[in-house]
């Protein structure tokens, strides 16, 4: 089968022929239909310091996907050939304290699809049945392919109550855009999203945010005045990983405000902890998706009319992967989809 492989410990990816995976005990074989390009995939392609420390080559990359089930191992129930499925890319041990308590998203032994084991940028992929999400309600395959990052957005956006609240989102990348769509959909009063990319801010406007703010031109404090807010933001969603974004967020939160942090900083940085303490601000780190409450929430949000179509801006055949990756790396787009049927 065809697969995108990190063949060598150097920058680049290679489209090559590899053996089709065999179904193991408790597993499901899936014919991949669509995949989404993630920031992690860009790090792997560039072979930056993180990738050099993390990867073992050769490796089939990719973890955002949807596909059609073609085979299930004996004993697997509730999944059948022909089902449209997405995959939870965090494979957990099932034996640690958190797994045994049902907190699988906190497993300290998590293995990442397309990072620590062969991934989904291929014509076929296998997954444990416990990591397969069957779409019981019709969903567009392009949207089904991005359930992994959509789950990050939903996990972050629903970390704290949103109804009637004023929300600040720093970072209008694809996950920040999806979080903005969720916040608006579930009843936030004002949703402000910040970035320095005019293209991404325009995508945010299409999603119905109250204000898309270019912080290269105006400050977060300006947004408070523009929207007639006097006490700061109730909820912050930090999606960028940039030090100044978090500092600006902390400085503009209301007393008792709550911040969920998904953006992953490249290095340590200082923040104003005196304000965090005296304003009694809550900081909560977010990683991945809650298994499988977040997945349920995603499906219901779509079923009740949440529209993610503006977030998907470009589609390519998997054969044109280099152009697709270059487009994703531009920092001007939403989600990029690779079609494995084209």
UniProtKB/TrEMBL annotation:
Keywords: Cytoplasm, Metal-binding, NAD, Oxidoreductase, Zinc. One of its GO terms (biological process) is L-threonine catabolic process to glycine. The lineage of its organism: Bacteria, Bacillati, Actinomycetota, Actinomycetes, Streptosporangiales. Pfam families: ADH_N, ADH_zinc_N. The keyword Transmembrane does not apply. Homotetramer. One of its GO terms (molecular function) is zinc ion binding. This is L-threonine 3-dehydrogenase.
């Amino acid at each position: 089968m065809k697969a995108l492989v990190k063949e060598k410990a150097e920058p680049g990816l290679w489209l090559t022929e590899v053996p089709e995976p065999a179904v193991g005990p408790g597993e499901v074989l899936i014919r991949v239909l669509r995949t989404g390009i993630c920031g992690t995939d860009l790090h792997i392609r560039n072979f930056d310091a993180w990738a050099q420390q993390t990867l073992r080559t050769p490796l089939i990359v990719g973890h955002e996907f949807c596909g059609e089930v073609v085979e299930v191992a004996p004993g697997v129930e509730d999944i059948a050939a022909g089902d449209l499925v997405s995959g939870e890319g965090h494979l957990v041990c099932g034996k640690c304290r958190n797994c045994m308590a049902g907190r699988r998203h906190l497993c300290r032994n998590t293995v990442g699809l397309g990072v620590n084991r062969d991934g989904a940028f291929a014509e076929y992929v296998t997954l444990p049945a416990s990591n397969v999400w069957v779409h019981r309600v019709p969903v567009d395959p392009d949207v089904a392919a991005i359930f992994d990052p959509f789950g990050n957005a939903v996990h972050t956006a629903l970390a704290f109550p949103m109804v009637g609240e004023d929300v600040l989102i720093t970072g209008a990348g694809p996950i920040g855009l999806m979080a903005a769509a969720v916040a608006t959909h579930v009843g936030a009063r004002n949703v402000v999203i910040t970035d320095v990319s005019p293209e991404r801010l325009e995508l945010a406007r299409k999603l119905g945010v109250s204000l898309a703010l270019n912080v290269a031109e105006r400050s977060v404090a300006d947004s408070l005045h523009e929207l007639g807010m006097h006490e700061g933001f109730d909820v912050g969603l930090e999606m960028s990983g940039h030090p100044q974004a978090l500092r600006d967020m902390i400085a503009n939160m209301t007393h008792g405000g709550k911040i969920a942090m998904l953006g992953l900083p490249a290095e340590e940085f200082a923040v104003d902890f005196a304000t965090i303490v005296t304003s009694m601000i809550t900081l909560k780190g977010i990683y991945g998706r809650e298994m499988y409450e977040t997945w349920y929430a995603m499906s219901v949000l779509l079923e009740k009319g949440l529209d993610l179509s503006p977030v998907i801006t470009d589609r390519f055949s998997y054969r044109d992967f280099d152009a697709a990756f270059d487009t994703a790396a531009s920092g001007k787009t939403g989600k990029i989809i690779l079609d494995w049927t084209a």
